[in-house]
Fold this protein.
Amino acid sequence: MSSLLSQNKDEPFIRKSLSDSCPASSAANTRSLRHGRPSRLGSSSSSDVSNDTSTNHAESYFLQRESRLSAKKKAEEEKMNSDYKKMYEKALATNQRLKSRLETSKQDLATVQNQLQTVQGKPDDCTSKMLEAEKKESWSLKKRISDMEEQLKVKAELKLENQRLKDENGALIRVITKLSK
């Protein structure tokens, strides 16, 4: 296998094989060697140094390009992660709001049931208007309870969706860490 001379700022000339360099630069090197002039390849050591300098420029170009692409990809992934986080926080806020509404409805129901029991205990004292009002109130509370049950179903669906997004987020993070290694 052919070897190239590469020069670092700190080190003098070091022999480096084509397989040690990055794949993109080795492909560029083989292309430049294939398409280069035959007189340049076999002429003298000064042409080797100039060819080596162009190789270093190609390597640095490809390394810079790779770093720009990886930085761009990392920024996009961070944006996606923050989007998942925002969706998660929004779902949590909705869940808390629904829980508080459910608690107030339960308290209202308990007070109405207590009132109903006291009224049922003394039917002689109540008028028919009070009974009708109690029936209407109880009907409205039952309707409200059924609405809350539907909201609880929605909450359960949101929890499942939230868990799915967490799992997907974890999978994406694992892929990102594997890709970054």
